[in-house]
């Protein structure tokens, strides 16, 4: 919980765009409240995203669950306890009530809300953190609608159903109210259940080896994962020239550049190398990497992530049904 | 360039050494780049190791460097205290504490650069005032008076009120006062701000200057140079084909080439014509000719030079410069009842446009005397035979002095010229060679083409090419039936101006002294010839009159010569007495009427202006400033310069004279500091822009917003547009039609809720002849009623048209605006399709203007409803008061034949099908324009004329039935005839109104509709 809280702090810093990093701590509480006030809007947007991508991720088949699915004729040899006598009383045959298969998958969501995520350029539609929340919550909402259980990575609890999105948002809001110090921008080292899915939404401005270590830890626990890389268009293109003074959002680093356009060439090359390393890390563990720019609509990335998550799930569901029928 | 620098001086010139530091500043500025833009860039934390490969040296843009250098230079220069034209300050610094006698020429010649003179005088006075010196102001064009020393503030006030006067100042008149003041203030210095001009040939200015020098002990400074650009008008001649204005410049000044335009204006200031002139370098005099016809020339009251704002450049013209005065005398007893038979009629008509005709109604001799007294320049004697000898002598003297005497033949002259006639005239010593005739006449004339003559009437020969009538067309149709014949002698051909085709002279003339004798051998009326009825006659007379001298030329010499002549003649006691007592004959002094100020503008006569004598001649002076004196008809014009005057620049050699032109010292420190401040602001803005901080910081945003708001505010303040627009928005008050309102609800506009004074709103300022009310009326179609003046009737009319308008808006596509009350005699009616006119007994009948308007309204397609509202009181055979009133009103109107509206009239079919036309009453008859008779056997359901019936006369009081009150309910009860309920009748009345309006708007459209089936059938084939 403490970690979550720590993330909230970074979100607070993040969601006040353009705030110099050294001033982040000063107005943290105020800005946290500001974000808490913005959350309902983000939730609404996430709902919209979830609704726009719903239907892709469905699992309507008979299986182990609580809800009625269908009646089927009784097969001799089956346990008599399975017979639904009320239905069977209406005609001469015996019927067995089948329940819907509910093999809820656990999806752990992690959204990077560190200070660097607070950046928003004039070209972007939203700050990176805002977009990351929208995307993450929207994805969670869509998954929860489809019956999965979702939770914040590191928060320990999962929830499902139509209220999952609000619960996640509530958790975020709670974190944002209890602000603290700035947080590392890497996913927490926690244990996840086997076969769980992990969605990491971040700008991944980390040294690749550190990120690779965290991903390896998660992957070793059997989790499959998806990386959503949120980037501001300015970060992609670096459209500056002349004399500029660059600084990070937390003010930790400064760089004075006499000729920005010249520096930009080197930057773009380095960025491309960084992206290549990220892709290599993801591919190493079979994870996906989705690049999302904040000047594009969030539903694009959500759709791609959902379709990436849907394909393996479907195949495993078939397996489980086969197992179920075999049982 | 050197001269440019010479006029610049510095209070602290050593400070200028700091300018040497500018290169150092330049270096500093060059190496200090502007602050870089600050950018937040999250990926930096990952890529901070990417060091810039190529660090281009940051450089201040060159223009920013230049801006800052200029800023520094401005500050240095401002600190050095630059003064432009510093010499004006020297006087003040040098001897400021000495008492100052400020002599300023305030005559007409000072006007063209008056502001500079006053400015110089004020600065001198202020400088002296700062030093505490007493100052006295002597304005030479004011009335000379002793001056007391005053403070600088008082002098400044007086200078502000001082204005140049329209005359040349008499400086010598001030000499004693100045001298007295200088004696009272020993050590005083004198500054004379001179206009630098004096009349050529009257060099008093040097005397004045040397007097001042003596009186002040040599402490005289003269400011003044002959104004080279100032032109003056000295004399305007009303020449043969134009006004010739003489334009002069002061001789002795440095004169460059000049050109300009002289302009003639009439008494009201309207320009009549212009003439250009140009002066070569050094030339002091030229002529500008303003070509104008004589009529326009005579109207000219003022000639001025365009662009010269001085009274010197204005010449006022009075009657001396204007039309000739022509006296008419006839020997025939004039019969006023038959003017065409008067012998002077044709002469009068011929000359009236170009000359002033005087025709004294008295005996011939007395009339001639009166005309000579009136200084007529031409006297025309139409068939005057004998004259009193005294008058004859006086007339001869007048002619010799320059008068033009034109005589016309006639029975009396024929009788007087003959040998018998001479004795009959009673002249004891009558010379058969009448000295008032150009030629000797034979006693009897000849008749041509008469009953007893074989000869046909003669025509005029073409006019002699060398004669005064050259160029005038001699029409063929001029015939001469009778004429007086001249005795043929040697000089007859030389005296013949016009002759008949057979060579007989018909107009002869002779010079006599300065004057001229002209004889027409025919009468002035058409009894002897048709000449007086021709256009040639007019031209001939005008030529003759144009040869006459100015009236002024005749005044004195004529009198003198007449006096001499009278002296020679022993019998002329009365005449002598008259000449010996000129004071009795002279009219009273002419009071000043309109006076020029020094700038040549009209002003009221000042208190110092006194009247001039009627024969005043001379230049304007303090007592008689330039202007018009006396009545308009017989006034005098007094000008600054007389005809023939020349100007000369005052020779100031030997005195300490300074030029006026370079006297404006100007401190340049404040403008420089202001410029530096502006540059500093520009620099700040540029720095912010370059640093990229302007748009990202909130402070920058605020500043930008402030600047925007400031600019917007300035723009708003500078342009009065919005305020005016708002005013315009408020003026038209449109009323939305109530068509949207569901029936049954109360109408929003009510007649009682509105102020009753609104409908007859007084017409506002007319624009192009249309009032704002007309514009309102033209914007929307509306019904109109005539304001009768009876408040009750008018309120019902208005309420009725409102009710009808609502019905129309609900039922038809016509949504009339608020009805208008009109006054047919003043308001334009063309905007209203229907005019409802309730007839009120006892009101005055509409005036002629109203009837004319009404007539054109009806002819133009308008529909007038006359409602006598008397159906209840009308009885067969009895005319109600309203009916009588209507008859009185319509008596003068050109109305078509009327008939009771027939059953098939289109009025009953226009919208609703109606059998009768009820209103508040249902019994009354409704009359419309009689329709053409129905074609034989034609059966059509509706008939209409060729348009809208121009008039409907009803007695059913329609408006009362239509009228609704504030809540939309009927205003007045109806009188039913028992067939219909009240509601039914009101509905029918509304339908009548709808039909009337639709009929007015659509004409006979409905009547044409009946042919539609036939048309469709034809189209089908």
Please indicate the percent range of residues of chain B in DSSP E strands (runs of 2 or more): 15-25%
SS content category of chain A: alpha/beta
The pLDDT mean of chain B sits at 77
* Name of the CATH architecture of the domain at 330-578 in chain B: 3-Layer(aba) Sandwich
> What gyration radius of chain B follows from the Cα positions, in whole Å?
46 Å
The total domain count of chain A is: 2
Averaging pLDDT over every residue of chain A, what do you get?
Answer: 74
Number of helices of chain A: 9
CATH fold category name of the domain at 330-578 in chain B? Rossmann fold
Extract low-pLDDT stretches of chain A.
1-29, 311-327
Strand content of chain A: 15-25%
Helix-strand sequence of chain A: HHEHEEHEEHEHEHEEHEH
Q: Strand count, sense and closure of the main sheet of chain B? A: 7 strands, mixed
Number of strands of chain A: 10
Please tell me about this protein's structure:
The complex is a heterodimer of chains A (327) and B (1021). With 327 residues, chain A is an alpha/beta fold. Chain A is built from 9 helices and 10 strands. A 6-stranded mixed beta sheet of chain A has the order 5-4-3-6-7-10, with helices on both faces. Chain A has a two-stranded antiparallel sheet with strand order 1-2. In chain A, strands 8-9 form a two-stranded antiparallel sheet. Chain A starts with a helix and ends with a helix. In chain A, 43% of the residues are buried. Helices cover 33% and strands 17% of the residues of chain B. Chain B is flat and about 120 Å long. Among the domains of chain B are: 232-320 and 591-648, no CATH class; 330-578, Rossmann fold, CATH 3.40.50; 772-1009, Rossmann fold. In chain B, helix 4 runs antiparallel to helix 21 and helix 6 (114-130) runs antiparallel to helix 7 (152-161). Classes of the chains: A alpha/beta (327), B alpha/beta (1021). Strand 8 of chain A pairs parallel with strand 2 (37-40) of chain B.
């Amino acid at each position: 919980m403490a970690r979550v809280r720590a993330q909230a702090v970074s979100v607070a810093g993040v969601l006040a765009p353009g705030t110099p990093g050294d001033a982040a701590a000063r107005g943290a509480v105020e800005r946290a409240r500001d974000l808490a006030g913005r959350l309902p809007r983000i939730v609404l947007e996430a709902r919209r995203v979830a609704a726009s991508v719903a239907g892709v991720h469905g699992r309507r088949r008979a299986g182990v669950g609580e809800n009625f699915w269908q009646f089927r004729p009784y097969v001799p040899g089956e346990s008599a306890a399975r017979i639904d006598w009320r239905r069977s009383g209406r005609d001469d045959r015996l019927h067995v009530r089948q329940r819907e298969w509910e093999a809820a998958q656990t999806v752990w969501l992690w959204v990077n809300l560190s200070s660097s995520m607070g950046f928003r350029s004039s070209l972007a539609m939203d700050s990176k953190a805002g977009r990351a929340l929208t995307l993450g919550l929207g994805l969670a909402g869509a998954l929860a609608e489809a019956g999965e259980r979702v939770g914040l990575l590191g928060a320990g609890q999962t929830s499902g159903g139509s209220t999952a999105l609000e619960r996640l948002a509530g958790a975020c809001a709670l974190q944002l109210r209890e602000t603290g110090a700035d947080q590392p921008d890497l996913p927490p080292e926690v244990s996840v259940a086997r076969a769980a899915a992990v969605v990491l939404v971040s700008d991944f401005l980390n040294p690749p080896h550190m990120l690779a270590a965290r991903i390896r830890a998660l992957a070793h626990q059997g989790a499959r994962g998806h990386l959503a890389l949120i980037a501001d268009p300015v970060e992609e293109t670096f459209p500056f020239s002349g004399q500029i003074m660059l600084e990070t959002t937390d003010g930790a680093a400064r760089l004075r550049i006499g000729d920005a356009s010249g520096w930009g060439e080197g930057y773009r090359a380095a960025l491309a190398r960084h992206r290549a390393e990220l892709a290599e890390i993801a591919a190493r563990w079979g994870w996906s990497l989705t690049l999302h720019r904040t000047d594009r609509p969030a539903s694009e990335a959500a759709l791609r992530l959902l379709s990436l998550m849907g394909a393996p799930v479907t195949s495993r569901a078939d397996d489980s049904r086969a197992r179920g029928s075999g049982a | 360039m050197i001269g440019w620098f010479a006029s610049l001086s510095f209070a602290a010139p050593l400070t200028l050494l700091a300018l040497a530091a500018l290169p150092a500043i330049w270096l500093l500025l060059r190496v200090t780049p502007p602050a870089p833009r600050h950018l937040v860039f999250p990926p930096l934390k990952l890529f901070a190791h990417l060091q810039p490969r190529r660090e281009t040296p940051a450089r201040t843009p060159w223009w920013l460097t230049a801006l800052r250098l200029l800023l520094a230079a401005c500050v240095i220069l401002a600190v050095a205290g630059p003064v432009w034209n510093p010499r004006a300050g020297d006087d003040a610094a040098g001897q400021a504490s000495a008492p100052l006698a400020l002599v300023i020429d305030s005559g007409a010649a000072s006007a063209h650069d008056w502001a500079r003179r006053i400015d110089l005088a004020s600065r001198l006075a202020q400088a002296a005032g700062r030093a505490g010196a007493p100052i006295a102001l002597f304005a030479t064009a004011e009335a000379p008076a002793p001056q007391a020393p005053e403070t600088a503030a008082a002098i400044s006030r007086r200078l502000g009120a001082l204005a140049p006067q329209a005359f040349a100042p008499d400086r010598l008149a001030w000499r004693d006062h100045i001298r007295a003041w200088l004696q009272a203030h020993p050590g005083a210095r004198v500054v004379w701000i001179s206009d630098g001009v004096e009349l050529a040939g009257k060099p008093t200015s040097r005397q004045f200057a040397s007097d001042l020098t003596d009186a002040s002990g040599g402490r005289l400074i003269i400011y003044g140079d002959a104004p080279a650009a100032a032109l003056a008008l000295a004399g305007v001649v009303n020449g043969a084909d134009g006004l010739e204005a003489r334009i002069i410049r002061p001789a002795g000044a440095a004169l460059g080439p000049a050109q300009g335009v002289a302009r003639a204006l009439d008494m009201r200031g309207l320009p009549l014509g212009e003439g250009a002139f140009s002066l070569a370098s050094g030339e002091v005099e030229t002529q500008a000719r303003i070509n104008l016809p004589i009529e326009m020339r005579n109207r000219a009251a003022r000639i001025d030079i365009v662009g010269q704002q001085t009274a010197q450049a204005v010449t006022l013209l009075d009657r001396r410069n204007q039309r000739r005065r022509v006296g008419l005398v006839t020997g025939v007893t004039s019969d006023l009842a038959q003017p065409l038979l008067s012998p002077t009629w044709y002469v009068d008509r011929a000359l009236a446009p170009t000359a002033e005709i005087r025709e004294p109604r008295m005996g011939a001799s007395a009339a001639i005397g009166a005309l000579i007294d009136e200084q007529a320049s031409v006297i025309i004697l139409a068939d005057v035979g004998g004259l009193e000898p005294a008058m004859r002598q006086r007339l001869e003297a007048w002619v010799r002095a320059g008068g033009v005497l034109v005589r016309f033949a006639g029975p009396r002259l024929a009788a007087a010229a003959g040998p018998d006639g001479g004795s009959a005239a009673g002249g004891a010593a009558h010379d058969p060679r009448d000295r008032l005739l150009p030629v000797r006449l034979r006693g009897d004339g000849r008749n041509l083409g008469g009953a007893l003559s074989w000869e046909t009437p003669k025509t005029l020969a073409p006019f002699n090419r060398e004669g005064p009538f050259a160029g005038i067309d001699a029409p063929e149709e001029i015939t001469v039936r009778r004429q007086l014949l001249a005795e043929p002698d040697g000089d007859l051909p030389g005296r013949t101006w016009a002759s008949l085709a057979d060579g007989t002279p018909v107009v002869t003339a002779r010079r006599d002294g300065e004057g001229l004798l002209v004889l027409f051998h025919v009468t002035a009326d058409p009894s002897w010839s048709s000449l007086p009825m021709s256009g040639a006659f007019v031209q001939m007379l005008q030529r003759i009159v144009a040869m006459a001298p100015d009236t002024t030329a005749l005044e004195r010499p004529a009198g003198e010569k007449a006096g001499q002549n009278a002296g020679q003649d022993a019998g002329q006691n009365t005449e002598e007495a008259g000449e010996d007592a000129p004071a009795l004959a002279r009219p009273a002094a002419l009071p000043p009427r309109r006076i020029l100020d020094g700038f040549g503008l009209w002003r009221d006569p000042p208190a110092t202006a006194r009247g001039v004598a009627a024969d005043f001649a001379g230049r304007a002076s303090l007592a008689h400033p330039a202007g018009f004196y006396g009545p308009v008809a017989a006034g005098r014009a007094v000008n600054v310069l007389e005809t023939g005057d020349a100007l000369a620049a005052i020779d100031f050699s030997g005195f300490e004279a300074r030029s006026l032109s370079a006297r404006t010292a100007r401190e340049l420190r404040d403008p420089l500091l202001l410029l530096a401040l502006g540059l500093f602001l520009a620099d700040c803005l540029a720095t912010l822009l370059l640093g990229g901080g302007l748009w990202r910081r909130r402070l920058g945003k605020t500043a930008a917003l402030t600047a925007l708001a400031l600019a917007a505010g300035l723009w708003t303040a500078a342009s009065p547009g919005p305020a005016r627009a708002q005013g315009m928005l408020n003026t038209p008050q449109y009323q939305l039609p109530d068509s949207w309102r569901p029936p049954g609800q109360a109408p929003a506009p009510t007649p009682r809720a509105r102020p009753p004074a609104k409908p007859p709103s007084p017409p506002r300022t007319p624009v192009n002849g249309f009032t704002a009310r007309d514009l309102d009326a033209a914007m929307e179609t509306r019904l109109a009623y005539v304001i009768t003046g009876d408040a009750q009737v008018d309120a019902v009319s208005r309420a009725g048209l409102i009710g009808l308008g609502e019905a129309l808006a609900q039922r038809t596509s016509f949504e009339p605006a608020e009805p208008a009350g009109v006054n047919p005699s003043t308001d334009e009616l063309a905007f209203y399709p229907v005019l409802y006119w309730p007839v009120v007994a006892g009101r005055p009948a509409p005036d002629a203007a109203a009837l004319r308007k009404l007539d054109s309204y009806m002819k133009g397609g308008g529909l007038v409803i006359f409602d006598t509202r008397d159906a209840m009181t009308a009885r067969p055979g009895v005319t109600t008061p309203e009916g009588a009133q209507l008859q009185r009103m319509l008596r003068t109107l050109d109305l078509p034949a009327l008939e009771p509206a027939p059953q098939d009239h289109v009025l009953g079919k226009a919208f609703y099908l109606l059998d009768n036309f009820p209103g508040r009453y249902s019994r009354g008859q409704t009359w419309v324009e009689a329709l053409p008779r129905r074609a034989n056997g034609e059966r059509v359901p509706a008939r209409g004329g060729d348009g809208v019936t121009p008039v409907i006369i009803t007695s059913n009081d329609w408006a009362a039935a239509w009228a609704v009150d504030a809540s939309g309910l009927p205003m007045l009860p109806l009188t039913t005839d028992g067939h219909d309920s009240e509601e039914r009748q009101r509905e029918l009345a509304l339908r009548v109104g709808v039909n009337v309006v639709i009929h007015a708007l659509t004409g006979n459209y409905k009547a044409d509709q009946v042919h539609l089936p036939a048309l469709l059938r034809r189209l089908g084939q």
